[in-house]
Each structure stands twice: as structure tokens, then as C-alpha cells.
Amino acid sequence: MRKPLLSIAFVCCALAVTGAKMLAQRIEVSVPGTAPLHGRLILVISKNDRTEPRMELSENYQSAQGFGVDVEGVTPGKPIVIDAKTFGYPLHSLTELPPGDYSVQAVFNVYEQFHLETGKNVWLPPDKGEGQKWNRKPGNPYSTPVKLHVDAKSPLNLKITLDKVIPPIEGTDQDPAVMAAKDPGAKWLKYMKFKSEKLSKFWGRDTYLGAWILLPDGFDEHPDAKYPLVVYQDHYHASSGPAFLATKPSAEASRSRRGGDAGYRLFQDWTSGRLPRVIILYVQNANPYYDDSYVVDSANVGPYGAAVNDELIPAVEKMYRGIGQGWARATYGGSTGGWEALATQVFYPDNYNGAYAACPDPVDFHAYQNINLYDSPNAFHLDGDFAQIPTAGDRKPDGTVIATAEGEFAFENVLGTHGRSTEQWAIWQAIFSPAGADGYPAQVLDPVTGVIDKKVVAYWHDHYDMAAILKRDWSTLGPKLEGKLHIAVGDGDTYFLNNAVHLLQNQLEATSNPHSDATFQYGPGMPHCYTGGPSEYTMQQNSANWTQRVLPLMADHMIQSAPAGADVKSWRY
User: Fold this and answer.
1) What is the pLDDT of residue 526?
2) Burial class of residue 487, CB neighbours in 10 A (0-12, 13-18, 19+)
3) What residues does each domain of the chain span?
4) CB 460 within 8 A of CB 433
5) 248 by DSSP, 3-state: which?
6) Beta carbons within 8 Å of 15's beta carbon, 6+ residues apart
């Protein structure tokens, strides 16, 4: 889960520049090269020079202006045109751009053709090791920012050439393999590039998972010990994210005399015997639709659930002496990782012995963020007899709305059509939807009008609505999930994710045979990424020691619930 009002802004700006609309406006972009072009041209217009315009396009109401054009087989050198008909965000049309001085930059997000196992051929932006960032993707051509002056009396006629190419990551200090080799914590921290046969078959090309493995202190000194496995779920990180061991405090943390930063405190706790001796696994699973796969099997993104659970994890446990049994595995994560942790435990109930999910993505599609997919006809507004209220997208903890659902979909529609924005709404659609007739994800709602497709929603309900699945399958799932479900969320969650969590709690509290013992914790006024813990914690404290708080809980539950004869001793030295 991520990031961001705009309907009112559209109207205000349109009224302000009525005179300018009478002029023809046109921007031409040329891409050097010889091969036919396939991809998405993204042009960004900014009013400031704080950074390059390509870095300023976002969901937030303070976003720069963007326009997007699909490019299919265009000959290099032939101009790609942005004009009055090109869809834009936050302003819908180039003709609405107010008079003033701007900085302009364009990026060409290169697509490749994938020959899917289903027989469909689709054009998608492959991840190049950057974690699906179109404005940082290696190989993407882009332009040097240029100045633009717009006035109400002259037509806009600008020509841009994409004169640069984003350099590769492989072999640099941004390459995970290079990071692992140079890291001072390499005694504990390992990196594996793992080819998945299941994913390779689905995508029609060799497909890999990246795995960061954090080994327990004393691993080499205790060769007969075997260890539980804890899977940390999160977005793409080039390094191992929170499991990364900072073997010394950062200079900033040292100067502040706070006793070191979070990574260094974890290093101290990890190597001092204060934490259970377990293996922590963090998986990189960026794909052509997003920086994360949600670790489930999907009609559009592929069998990532099987790839991680049936291929990668057994390989990691074999190489690093994992116990390799369900009672000795647990998982945790926040936001996207929170949904993944919960889904992993629900879809693989015998493979795991505990899920700690913080601020999970929507777990009940009655509250798809702030959209009721089941009961509302339109995702972008609520209609009364005399009034229409826009659907809020993001908010501050005090309730201030900083994005609307309509604006967020417009943002993504600039970045890519057919669900190829590589952003949040697009990946949910790619994961949860069936494949459409064209091979791309079936649209759950129209990204321009907001009209909801109830047939697609029905598919979502049956396959990925956690509350609905638990209700439907409780007779078999319930006994397998006792003691395993733990969820925390802030009641001021930035993306309204607390609403779905409350609905899930209501559903589980109504269960019987067995009655669910799932635990829920809500942080009053806390924003996105609240992980639970003592009520006096600040958000910073709440995030900084989450690993140290959940590992002992996981280990204690494993020991208490281990089957007779299980190894609960070799790893407790």
C-alpha cells in the first residue's frame, strides 16, 4: 500500500483559463534509435526546480502535471504528440495549463512483449532491478528538463528529444548481489537469486526471485542446529529492508545520542542473544505490474504463491538448515506486506504457525480503501437526491483529505493504460481480476468514469476477499488458524484501511466451531503503517522495534504448539 483532490481543481483551473483554451497547444517528443517503439510516453510539467519534473508526479494534490501516450510500434524519430486530446492529470487537457513559466521533462517507459503460458501476448514494462519505478528504470530514455513559457495569446508548440538513457543497475552498488558481497554484516546476511520454474513457465521467459536471508547469530558455531523460518513481507527493497543489519550506528544517530538507529539496534539485539535464533527471509518479487506480487497465485501476475512457498522456501530451508515444517514458520509485514502475511496464512494454513499483519491492504471489499465495491455503482462519488460527494482517497490523521479516488485513478491512467501504471490500484486489479479477452487484467471499474463492473467484483469476492473467504471456509480453516491471526491498524489510517479491518473483526467475532481467537489492535489517530504495541509508543518507536517485538511472540507460540518430538531445543542456545 502506498501514497495520492482533484475534482475541484479540474473545475477551478478550467474556469481560470477559458481564454487560453482557444489556442492550439502541442508538444512533440522524439526518441532516437532504430527499433520500433513500444511503451508509454510520460510527460511531466512542473512549476518549480526543486528536482527533475519526472520525480514530482504523484497522487498528492501537490502533484506536478502529467500527460501519457501509448506508443505501439512507432518508428524512432517520428514525433510522439501531446495535444488537447491527450489525457492528463491533475488537469485533464493541455489547453487547461494556466499561463506561467514551467519546467518540462519526458520519459519513455519501454515495454517488452511477454508470451504468456495462456497463449496471450501482452506488452508490459519489465522490472529492471529498480522495483518498478518508471522514472528510474534502467534503459528508459528521458530528456533533459527544458523551460516552457505559456501565455494566453500564443499557441504552445514545444519540441523535445529524449537525449538520455537511465543507466543499468547490474554490477553497480545498487545491485543486490554487489550489496551482499560488500556488506559488513555478510556473516549473517546472504543473498540468493532464485530461478522459479513455475514463474518462468507462466511468463514465457526466465523469471527470478531475489531472497535476502538473515541467519541467526551462532549459525556457524552450531552446525547441528536447525532453525524456524520467519518470512518478512514488504515492498521491493534493493537491500533487505528492516532485516538489514547496520553494524554501526549512522552518523546522524550518533550525533543525536539516541543510542543508534533502528538497523543498528537490531544488529545489537540480533547478535547478543536477546532475540530468538530464527532465520528471517525477505523476498524480492517485483513483476511487470508492480514492485510486489502479493505472494498469491493470480491469473495475470502468475503463480507467485506457489513459487515462493513451494519452490523458494524449501530451497532456502535446505541450504540454511531450516526445520522445514509448518509449526516452525511464521510471517509478518505491514501494508502490502500485511495483506500478504494474512493471505499467506489463510491460503497456506498448514504451512505457517502465525501471521502478524499491520495496516493490511483491503481485507474486505466492502471497504476497498474508501470504496464499497459491492453496494456502490460508482467508485468516484456518492450520489444523493440533490448532491454528489467525491470519494476520498487519502487523508491525514486529522481527517484532511489530500486525494480523491477519481484523482488517484487519473494519475495511474496517465502512467499506463490496461492496468500498466505499476501503481497501487493497478496491481490490485492485476492480482484480483481474471484475465480479460485481450490478455490484460479485466477492469474492476472504469478508470475515467468510475463505473464498477459487478461481474469482476464477484470474481474478486470468491478469490481474494479475506473476510468472505474466511466466512465461506471457516469450517475447514477455523481449526487451522487458531492462535495464528494477529492484526493491527491505525484508526486514522491514511488510506482508510482500518475500515476493512473492523469489518473483518466483526466477521471473525461471529464465528463458531471454533470461535476465532484472532487478535486486533487499533491505534487511535494513528496513520498508515501502525504496527501495534504499547499505547504510549510514538509512530517512530512503533516502527523501529517491530521485529524485536514480534519475534519472541512467534517463537513462544511455536514452542507451545509444536508437535510431540519436534525440535524445540537445537536453536535455543
Assistant:
1) 95
2) buried
3) 7-165, 176-364+466-561, 369-462
4) yes
5) coil
6) none
Distance separating alpha carbons of residues 439 and 163, to the nearest angstrom: 33
CATH of domain 176-364+466-561: 3.40.50.1820
CB atoms within 10 A of CB 564: 4
Give, rounded to a whole angstrom, the gap between the first and last alpha carbons of the chain: 38
CB-based contact 142:106 (threshold 8 Å): yes
Phi-psi region of 496 (alpha: psi -120 to 50; beta: other; left: phi over 0): left
- In angstroms, rounded to a whole number, what is the distance separating the alpha carbons of residues 543 and 182? 27
Cβ atoms of 556 and 321 within 8 Å: the answer is no
Length of the chain: 573
pLDDT digits (tens, 9 = 90+) for 424-467: 999 999 999 999 999 999 999 999 999 999 999 999 999 999 99
Give me 79's grid cell.
514525433
C-alpha to C-alpha distance for 178 and 171, rounded to whole angstroms: 7
- Alpha helix positions (H), 271-418: 304-306, 313-319, 336-347, 405-415
Q: What sections of 118-258 are H helices per DSSP?
A: 176-182, 197-203, 251-256
User: Among the residues of 416-473, which ranges form H helices?
Assistant: 424-432, 454-464, 466-472
C-alpha cell at 221: 558455531
Whole-angstrom Cα Rg for the chain? 25
Residues of the chain with pLDDT under 50: 3-22, 242-243, 253-259
- CB distance 240 to 214 below 8 Å: yes
Q: What is the CATH number of domain 7-165?
A: 2.60.40
CA 388 to each of CA 110, 253, 451: distance values in angstroms, whole numbers, following the listed order: 39, 50, 15
Amino acid present at 570: S
Given a contact cutoff of 8 angstroms between Cβ atoms, the answer to whether 486 and 519 are in contact is yes
Q: In whole angstroms, what is the distance from residue 466 CA to residue 464 CA? A: 6
Helix (H, G, I), strand (E, B) or coil at 68: strand
pLDDT of residue 542: 85
> What pTM value is reported for the model?
0.93
DSSP percent split of the chain into helix, strand, coil, nearest 5: 30, 25, 45
> Which residues sit opposite 229 in a β-bridge?
279, 329
DSSP class of residue 370? T
Output phi, psi for 410, to 5 deg.
-65, -45
Please tell me the distance from the alpha carbon of residue 408 to that of residue 60, in angstroms, as a whole number.
8
Neighbours of 535 (CB within 10 A): 8
Other Cβ atoms within 10 Å of 499 Cβ, number: 21
CB 134 within 8 A of CB 142: no
Q: Which residues lie below 8 Å from residue 410, measured CB to CB, with a gap of 6+? A: 6, 87, 89, 90, 92, 447, 448
> Which pLDDT does position 154 carry in this prediction?
85
pLDDT in tens, 104-125: 999 999 999 999 999 999 999 9
Neighbours of 151 (CB within 10 A): 13
* 40 vs 51: CA distance, rounded Å: 22
Q: How many helices (H) and strands (E) does the chain have?
A: 16, 26
Tell me how crowded residue 248 is: count the other CB atoms within 10 A of its CB. Answer: 13
Contact 48, 98 (CB under 8 A): no
